Amino acid sequence: MKYLPIILSLTAISYCASGQGWLENALKKAVKETVTESSESKMARLDSLDFQFAMSINEGSNLFEVEQKGETLTKVSSKGVKALFDEEDTKKPVDVARDTLGSAITFYELRQYELAESGFKNAKSYMEENSLTNGLTYLRCVSSIGVMYMVQGRNEEAENYISEALTKSDSVLGKKSAGYASNLNSFAKLNQLLGKYNEAEQQFDEALPIVQKVFGEKSMQYAILQNNKAMLYQAMGRNADALALMKKAVASAESAPKKVTNNSFDSRKFQLNQALMYQLNGNLPEAETAFTAIKKVFESKGQVNNPEYASLLNQLGVLYIQMNKSDQVESLLKKSLDVYKRKFGEENISYAKVQNDLGNFYRMQGRFADAEVALKKAVDIRKNVLGESHPDYVKSIENLGILYWKKGDLAAAYQPLKEAADKSLDFISHYFPPMSEAEKTKYWDILHPRFQRFYNYAIEASATNPELLKVIFDYQIATKALLLSSTNKIKKSILQSGDKALIAEYTSWLTQKENLSRYYSMSKEDLLRQKIDIAEL
Asked: How many other CB atoms sit within 10 Å of the CB of residue 279?
């Protein structure tokens, strides 16, 4: 997933035995190389570089970086950071703004989020105090803050900044610019994280032709947008569509001007997602081969402390649950938890996902006490970070209900299982209207098992609580002929819209559908004689 910050040509900085003093000197040297440029060359370099784009990686969101920065960097003291800018008094305000933003982006790329946040906020305040809010530097700063918060799961703060960046990129650069497409992509990723799938798909669809025109189909930017839309399809249960689009994303990335090597950090992001698609489409051996190969590359390069590695461990653990290789699952998930906790703390959506997966694993192993601790932790985090109407929260609350059911506490299981079913009805009401019939069918395939699980639970629990039979009946009435009911609502809405062109187009579409249905029943000879081409229709 990616966004609007610029790509700086600073050398990656890593920690060595000479300690923090060496690190501060290296950072100071790197920043001063930028500071000593002439204003003209600096402006040309910063204002002409491509925007970066937020890139989906499994279920997390991380900044797409051209190269992996120092993996084991230690934190620089506030005093050390301040020393980097002791000579600002001799510079013009526009140069100070660029340098401060550049240093913040450097810290961000080094995953030093606390220092990056401080730098971004200082740059933003400085530009506001010096009336520099109408330029590209300010726009990049606002956008960068939004994506930094999104990466950390601080979604409410992220939405404020990304929304502001999208509005400003429209007014400053226009709707056909790379900056607008970049912020649109970020907003789409955020909407996906918030469970707003319809809005996310519309924004990806709007961004794709812009990026295609600005960068071309053989570009990393276009590959990232295809990747992100594929991950959205995956979240919506459209796994075949997701895999097909993911293959196109890999092809675009491989043909991009700066072609990534098979073992590069950026290439691994696409490979991870493609491996996930194989897993979701049931090709488990191929998924395992891909995951383990990527894991070896991370470990051989010593890159075992970043979120992408944690995501890989999480997904490999889930895969081994599916493959009944249970002896390796717990260690993989616990390692993943440890990395996420050290990087983001516990109040993070990625950390919550691993807790949820670990809880389900413990339940399958009959370790009910351990499962309850893990699942309750996942529920609490997702409730606090995502809210009670997010699909991931609903998954967690249902998993908790299933745990109580399986351990024999039928009374405790009722409320979480019913809450999950009720929220699923809300999802149907919200997501179904703009979907095609095929898309509705695929989305219903995700939700339908949840109702079946509730029915099975309720039938068992009805021996002591007969009222549950009425609840089953109510859900069956609410979901009966659901797909047809949703289609009829759209039909009614169109016919009552008063839009003559829309009504005519809809009527024509219905007629063609009816004709096509009739043609399917005809023989090949009849079709040939009447010159009917079903594929074309």
From this structure: 22
The vertex-227 CA angle with 226 and 228, nearest 5°, equals 90
Buried b or exposed e, range 189-221, using 16+ CB within 10 angstroms: bbbbbbbbbebbbebbebbbebbbebbeeebbb
Backbone CA torsion sign across 508, 511, 513, 516: negative
366 contacts: CB under 8 Å, gap ≥ 6: none
In a 13 Å sphere around the CA of 262, the CA atoms on its Cβ side amount to: 4
Which residue carries 């695929």 as its tokens?
442
Q: How far apart are CA 169 and CA 352, in angstroms?
A: 33
Distance from chain centroid for Cα 93: 36
Rounded distance between C-alpha atoms, residue 85 and residue 70, angstroms:
22
Contact present, 345 and 360 (Cβ < 8 Å): no
pLDDT tens digits, 127-151: 999 988 888 888 889 988 998 888 8
Alpha-carbon distance values, 66 to 177, 312, 333 (Å) = 21, 20, 28
Cα dihedral 508, 509, 515, 521, rounded to 10, equals 180
Tokens at 371, concatenated = 């499962």
Would the pTM of this model clear 0.85, i.e. be above it? Answer: no
- Residue 489 CA to residue 256 CA, distance in Å, equals 45
pLDDT in tens, 33-79: 444 444 444 433 333 333 445 565 543 333 333 222 332 233 333 44
- How far apart (Å, rounded) are the C-alpha atoms in residues 455 and 475? 9
What H or E segment, with its residue span, contains residue 55? Answer: strand 54-57
Q: CA-CA distance, 316 to 326, in Å (whole number)?
A: 11
Q: Is 13 left (phi over 0), alpha (psi -120 to 50) or beta?
A: beta
Phi and psi for 239 in degrees, rounded to 5? Answer: -65, -40
198 CB contacts (<8 Å, ≥6 apart)?
Answer: 430, 431, 434, 435
By CB atoms closer than 10 A (0-12, 13-18, 19+), residue 423 is: buried
